[in-house]
Amino acid sequence: MAYSTEKSQEKRRGFLDPRTKLALVLILALFVMGGLGGDALKHVKTALSALPFLLLLMERQWKRFARGIAMLAVGYVLLFAMPYLPGALSFIALMCGGILTRFVVTIVMGEYLVGTTSVSEFISAMERLYIPRAVTIPMSVMFRLFPTIGAEWKSILRAMGMRGIHLGGTKAGQVLEYQMVPMITSSVRIGEELSASALTRGLGAPVKRTNICRIGFRAQDFLLLILCAAVIAIWILELCGVAPW
Fold first, then answer.
1. Pairwise pLDDT comparison (182 vs 20), residue with the higher score
2. Pair 17, 216: CB distance under 8 Å
3. End-to-end alpha carbon distance in the chain
4. I need a surface site. Which of 32, 39, 129, 171 has the fewest CB within 10 A?
């Protein structure tokens, strides 16, 4: 078993506690993606935007890091090129660049949360936050649903490649037949299997579950939680008209 010994538990343990990751996702969603604080917190938002990429590097999530940097770079290139483009193209570049620069950072943080947190760790964190089971159980199922669907999508594309099926942009009917129909069927099956797995683990039982995985706050968690609290404090000071710098 992966959690059979204390040594294996410590080795499998992530760099951050799941509750810290959730707090970072919330802060990034509010201040970077949601634009809370406006231009007054511009430098704070820039510092926050670097956090997901630093965490991905520390966890050696190279593909997610490269994909996030590439999408962010495309967004900034579009914003840079926007003044030099004619009419409609300028508006499209502004819209796409704005969406990418705002949304990518939070999406990357969400990918970090999903990619570095096991279902057991997530459930244990939710229980320590006293989140109701009506919320915890669906979230734990969804926590595994998206990565599983992504793997299934890649399997469908590989199967099509083995059969020599290559679809172009003008074959909408074939795209529906060869890609979407198998994907919908697989998604229904995956959802049923994950629900059965959750029930097998006793998530719906009326008694309190035990959890052998180890979570807990460490120095890095306290540091990042203090950072989150500091960002909220700076925002409140700005609302009160008190400039912190």
1. 20
2. yes
3. 52
4. 39
